[in-house]
Design goal:
CATH architecture: 3-Layer(aba) Sandwich
Oligomer: single chain
Number of domains: 1
Structural class: alpha/beta
Largest sheet: 7 strands, mixed
Low-confidence stretches: none
Number of strands: 7
Number of helices: 6
Helix content: 25-40%
Strand content: 15-25%
CATH topology: Aminopeptidase
Length: 217
């Protein structure tokens, strides 16, 4: 059974939820995260599809599973990258390399690190639950990126999806979630950049086994 563990109402009245399916025979805590960037909704579809599969088929897995289907519902509602304050949440985490920045697309990194309710919500969860692996969905590069010692897991996910492993995303990401968790906390984190050329249904076919693999790792 999927339970609501934490919830937050956003500035625009939308809901962010941490959901969980806890296992009696658990060995690891796994977090699946979607829609850090509002114009990348694919992760929400994939996570909710897996939750639906769990509930419909009454599936049980080895690990404790945690889900945040949509971290940035205000941005997704508007079809924009940033949240309601036009902050790129993936540049707002309290990392050692955080810097106040305005980006070319008009979003900012916030007035200070962890300034946004969405990043505060996720930071608090990271501090309160010891995650063994985090999978964060993004788009559109069709690659498997990793931080925090997640290379072997990234290689397996690459085999499942057909996406190449790319250790460096190719540009600086100060204040990113990958740095916050992977580099500074040594939590294996996979940033799975799915293709934006495929329908949600085809993305599910491509990525369903990723969920099952991590759920039983």
């Amino acid at each position: 059974m999927i339970k609501t563990i934490e919830r937050l109402q956003t500035k625009n009245g939308n809901k962010i939820q941490l959901l969980g399916k806890l296992s009696d025979k658990s060995s690891k805590n796994i977090l699946f995260l979607g829609v850090t960037h509002g114009e990348e909704p694919q992760g929400k579809f994939l996570i909710e599809n897996f939750i639906k599969k769990i509930e419909t088929e009454k599936l049980n897995f080895k690990n404790n599973l945690y889900f945040i289907p949509c971290l940035n519902p205000d941005g997704m509602q508007k079809g924009q990258r940033g949240n309601s304050n036009n902050v790129d949440l993936n540049r707002n985490f309290p990392t050692q390399n955080y810097e106040v920045t305005t980006f070319d697309d008009g979003t900012t990194s916030g007035d200070y690190a962890n300034s946004e309710m969405e990043t505060q919500f996720l930071s608090k969860i990271i501090d309160s639950i010891k995650f063994d692996i985090i999978l964060s969905f993004h788009a559109p590069f069709a690659i498997v990126n990793y931080d925090g010692g997640g290379e072997k897991i990234a290689q397996k996910i690459s085999e499942i999806t057909g996406y190449p492993v790319q250790a460096d995303i190719g540009y600086p990401t100060p204040g990113s979630f990958g740095t916050f968790c992977g580099i500074e906390r040594n939590i294996p984190i996979i940033t799975l950049e799915v293709s934006d050329k495929l329908s949600n249904e085809k993305l599910w076919i491509q990525n369903e086994k990723v969920f099952v693999y991590l759920a039983n790792l």
